[in-house]
Design goal:
The chain has two helices and five strands. With 146 residues, the protein is of the alpha+beta class. It has a five-stranded antiparallel beta sheet with strand order 1-3-4-5-2. The longest helix has 19 residues. The chain is globular.
Length: 146
């Protein structure tokens, strides 16, 4: 079993599971995890970096998402998505997220995800280098982790 250091993740988004998230097995459907991760990415970008306040500001596309499901999430569970930028390249960056379930003041990892996003020029549709100001903002935010 992998041990995770929650202190390495500065950004945290809390969500509640909803009835519509549940599948025929009584747990959160795997497709809903993509929604949770999207909310966390947007929250990280807006709150931590001050980016993407309008849909016209978005210049990133998801290139890859990899999810390891560790344990089921059930209706009524309180979840948190812990997010950090794990790697920054020239035209892409990778978020690492832990989806955790909070019970009895303990957090248990329900899933771990890696999400690679590519910066894109909206007019040409081609990948473009990440702006230096964004790299600096990510570095500053991650460096100042509590």
């Amino acid at each position: 079993m992998t041990a995770y250091n929650f202190d390495e993740f500065r950004h945290k988004l809390k969500l509640n599971t909803r009835f519509m998230d549940i599948d025929a097995f009584g747990h959160v459907n795997n497709a809903r995890y993509l929604n949770f991760l999207e909310e966390a990415r947007i929250s990280y970008s807006q709150q931590a970096l001050g980016l993407f306040k309008s849909v016209d500001d978005f210049n990133v596309l998801v290139a890859r998402i990899e999810i390891d499901f560790k344990k089921p999430i059930i209706f009524g569970d309180k979840i948190s998505i812990l997010t950090r930028v794990l790697k920054i390249g020239t035209k892409s960056f990778t978020f690492e997220s832990l989806i955790t379930v909070e019970k009895d003041d303990q957090n248990t990892v329900a899933a771990r995800a890696l999400q690679t996003l590519v910066t894109v020029d909206r007019s040409s549709g081609k990948s473009t280098p990440i702006e230096a100001s964004i790299i600096s903002a990510i570095d500053e935010y991650e460096k100042n982790q509590a």
